[in-house]
Amino acid sequence: xxxxxxxxxxxxxxxxxxxxxxxxxxxxxxxxxxxxxxxxxxxxxxxxxxxxxxxxxxxxxxxxxxxxxxxxxxxxxxxxxxxxxxxxxxxxxxxxxxxxxxxxxxxxxxxxxxxxxxxxxxxxxxxxxxxxxxxxxxxxxxxxxxxxxxxxxxxxxxxxxxxxxxxxxxxxxxxxxxxxxxxxxxxxxxxxxxxxxxxxxxxxxxxxxxxxxxxxxxxxxxxxxxxxxxxxxxxxxxxxxxxxxxxxxxxxxxxxxxxxxxxxxxxxxxxxxxxxxxxxxxxxxxxxxxxxxxxxxxxxxxxxxxxxxxxxxxxxxxxxxxxxxxxxxxxxxxxxxxxxxxxxxxxxxxxxxxxxxxxxxxxxxxxxxxxxxxxxxxxxxxxxxxxxxxxxxxxxxxxxxxxxxxxxxxxxxxxxxxxxxxxxxxxxxxxxxxxxxxxxxxxxxxxxxxxxxxxxxxxxxxxxxxxxxxxxxxxxxxxxxxxxxx
Length: 486
Description:
Helix content is 48%, strand content 18%.
C-alpha cells in the first residue's frame, strides 16, 4: 500500500509553523508568568505599605478612629493578640484570606463573647507573629502575604493581603492586615492573554504563508530539474542536460552533479554501444570464415581446410573468452585473494615461447587471482612477440615505490620489453582502449582483436595496480605492471 504524497513544501511549511508555534507558546507562557509575578509583587508591596502606615499610627499610640483605615477604599483590619478585631475599614462588608472573618470591631468588654469560634482560625498567624520579639512602639520587620477577597461598599474584588505586627505600650501586640486590589493584575494578564490568542494565530498564518512562498521559490529549480530528467527518461536522449540555476547553492550543485552523472552515463552507454558494435564486427569474421569452410566442405569434402577451420574455431573461442572476461570486469567482479608468486608465474608464461628471456627475483608475491594475472602476462607476451624483431625480456622484481617503505609494503614490478619499434608517445594511452590496433595494415590473424592490452590494464586496476608503457633504452616498448606486494 503506497504512502500518501506529501510535498517538501508542505512538510517544510508544517515544520516551520510548528517550530514557531512551540516558540510562541513557550515565550507567551513565560511572559504571562513574569507579568503575573511582577504585578503580584507590586500588589504585595502596596499592601505592605498600607499595613505599615497603619502600624506606624499604632506604634505612636494613635486611637483607632485616627488611623488611615479607609484610604483608597482598601480593606484594613487591626487584630489584637487574642485574635479579636479591634479596628477595620468603615465600609468593609466581607473579608477572607486574612484568617479573621469579622468585619465589625468588638468592644473590649466583650473580649471573647461568641467570637471564639470564628477567631480561633487566626491564632496560628498570631502565634507566628509572637515569635518575633518586639519592643513597645516597634513594628515587626517580617511581613506575611496571603491572597483573598473582600467586599467594600457592595463591590467584591480579589486582594493581596499583607500582615504586619506592631507592639504597642497600652494595647499589647497588634497585627495589621491591609489589602491591595488584584484587579490590575487580572486585567493586565487577561489583556495579554487576549492579545496572544488573537495575535499568535495571525502570526502563525503569516509564517506559514511566507514559508510556503519561500520554499516554492527555492524549490522551483528542483522542479525544473525533475521535469528535464523526466523528459530525458522519456526520450532516452542522454545528450540533454538539466538547467543549472545561478544561485550557487545546494540546488545548483545538485544540478551540476546531475549533469556530470548524465555525462558519465552518456559516455558509458556510448562505450557499450561501440563495444557491442566492435564485438559483433570481430565475431562476424571468424564465424563467416568458419561457415564458408563448412559449406564448402559439405559440398566438396575433398576441399575441407581442416587446419583453417580449427584455427578459426580457436580464434573464435579466444575472442569469446576475452569478451566474457571483459564483461565480468565491467560488472565489478572482485579478484580472488590468493597469494601469487609472480616469478613462478612469469617462468610458466614464458615456457614454450621462443626468444623470451626471464630474469626474476625470488619470492615476489602479490594477492589476487592467479588466472587473471596469468592472462595479463600472456597478453603482454603475445603483444611483445608480435612486435619484437628478435627478443623479448621479462623481469620480475621488488620496488620501494608508492607501496614501499613508508607506504605500507613493497611494490611488485613485472616488466615486459621488446626490441621492436616501440609505441609513439601520442598512442601510449590509446593502445589500452578496446579494439584498438595501431597498425591498420596488419591482418586480423596477426594482430588479434585489440582486446589483450585492454584486458591487461583492467585486471591491473582491479588488483589495485597500474599498467603503463614507455620506451626501452634500445627503442622498443617496455610494458610495466606494478602491483602492491602481498
